[in-house]
Amino acid sequence: MTRRHLFSMLFSDHAERQTVLSQEEYYPSAEQKALATDEVLPSELSFAPDKERATLQSGLEPYTQTLDRRRALHLVRRLSFAPSYALVSQLVGKTALEALNIVLGATATVNQPASLPGTWTNDITENPDRADNDTRNKIQGTWGGQFGTLQAWWANVMLTEGFPAREKLVLFWSGHFTSEFYFDDVYNPPQLLFRQNQTLRKDCLGDFRQLAEDITLDGAMLNYLGGTLNSKGAPNENFARELMELFTLGLGQYTEGDVKEAARALTGWRASRFNDEPRPNGNFNTYFLPSAHDTGAKQFLGVTIPARDTDSNTEFLVRTGEVRRLINIIFEQRGDAAARFISTKLYRFFVYSNPSRTDTNVIQQMADVFKRSNYQILPLLQALFTSAHFYDEANVGVQIKTPAEFVLGLARQLGVSAGNAVSTMNSLEQVLIDPPNVAGWDGYRTWLSTKTYPLRVQYAQNLIRGISNDALATWARQFPQSENVQMLVSGIVEFLFPKPLTSSRLQNYVTALLAGAPDYEWASILRDSNAAGTRLKALLTMMTKAPDMHLC
User: Fold this and answer.
1) 42 Cβ contact partners less than 8 Å away, ≥ 6 residues apart
2) In this predicted model, what pLDDT tens digit does every residue of 342-357 receive, in sequence order?
3) What's the DSSP call for residue 244?
């Protein structure tokens, strides 16, 4: 069955009651069929992935109202991996800028996580391609274990970060400046990928040109896109092409001649990967090999990069005079295109992912801000996340959650460990630090399929099943007026669902929580953690079957 058929089954507009993925051939197992059964009337869904977002009139003009809880939740859902109740409460009553400064921070300085994945991040081995079979297999097996540790470490950083929250941005840049762990029968050592992750975090809010320069000379990127093979007389054009096509400009903004000249300008850079290879700048640090650099003049985007003699063919001078100059030329000669390209990528990730319904007027306004700020990332994000457009009701609850948002977000909202988060995200087709190709993840509707939707529900139900009754009762008591069953369910719904539900759906959830008891008995039930926890598990399990739980 196609993905469109799936969405039709999930979110059809007719009013007849139906189940999610109800046809037998959609299910790998009877268990997954049972997990996917849903009780929601499709006509009761206010938005669904097969519907189009409403037409908007709003732009980047400031949002002038203070944030109520729904708008505060919207901000944190989009800019982090879902909120805890305590975190989002800090934002209620704040202006959009005050709230953003709490969530994202007011400066571009970003600290690295206090904990590291392990001491192995500094372990260096011999080149396995030059080793015997047993040694090669051992090294690659060790890398596999270290890579899994790296993924788990980053997932935990996402799960546990408070405010300011920057890991969603790191994930965005990881899907933009991509590097794979295993590609074309080649491994990217996890030590290099860890350092790239740190670079993306360090630069995630700063000067985009600096980020582009740092990634251009990043060891994992050099290893991934052929930079370590790029030499005078035999240029490797892979990175030069992707630098323009996927990382800065998009198609149609450069020629094949520009690709060739850019590749020449980038010759001679190497990654220190192994202990039996040169490491003049230390383990895992990039270095420059003058004999491999093409010192001739280059013509790039109509601008001349002058030739250099032997005395000026040094690491510092080539980095500043050719690598940095190359990137600056992109923004000097194609600044409008670059600003629109990056603004579009950010818009689709943080606002609305449908590529056919991107708001071109708002994109242009974002591009104008980006250019005026001299390509600083933070001012662009400040303009977007304090705008009337971002807070427009038509933009609330219209994004399909990525696997990371769904897996880590639900755990954050419930205040529990995400358990097998990495393996779950892998099964949901988002492998952290190992995107499917250089273009990154397709996103949007590809996140939901006949395979992944039941697995999402299964993960959510297993997560809820593992929470103790006492912990669930304590979690419920944090909501205002939690002893009033109607107010509690309304609070939980507002917290877990991005858009308001119909009164009939709310009442169905109240009925499920009461499990046959009258409303007035709920206060006494809540005081009994075992009784309340059992009912809360049933309620939350019922909620996991709702299609709009997969929206943010």
Assistant:
1) 10, 11, 12, 13, 14, 15, 18, 48
2) 999 999 999 999 887 8
3) I
CA angle 506, 531, 41 (to 5 degrees): 20
Residue 551 is classified by DSSP as: B
Are the C-beta atoms of 549 and 523 separated by less than 8 Å? no
Q: How many CA atoms lie within 13 A of 381 on its CB side?
A: 27
- State the pairing for strand pair 298-300/286-288: unpaired
Number of H helices, E strands in the chain: 26, 6
- Give the tokens for residue 53: 């977002």
**Which contiguous run of DSSP H or E holds residue 299?**
strand 298-300
pLDDT greater than 50 at residue 35 = no
In this structure, the number of other CB atoms found within 10 A of the CB of residue 177 comes to 26
The structure tokens 């700063």 sit at 206
Q: How far is CA 81 from CA 42, 123, 337, 350, 433, in A?
A: 27, 31, 30, 12, 17
Residue 48 pLDDT grade (very low, low, confident, very high; cuts 50, 70, 90): low
Angle between helix 324-333 and 335-350 (nearest 10):
90
**Phi-psi category of residue 374: left, alpha or beta, with phi > 0 → left and psi -120 to 50 → alpha:** left
Please give the distance of CA 186 from its chain centroid, rounded to a whole number: 25
- For residues 160 and 411, give the distance between their C-alpha atoms in angstroms, rounded to a whole number: 10
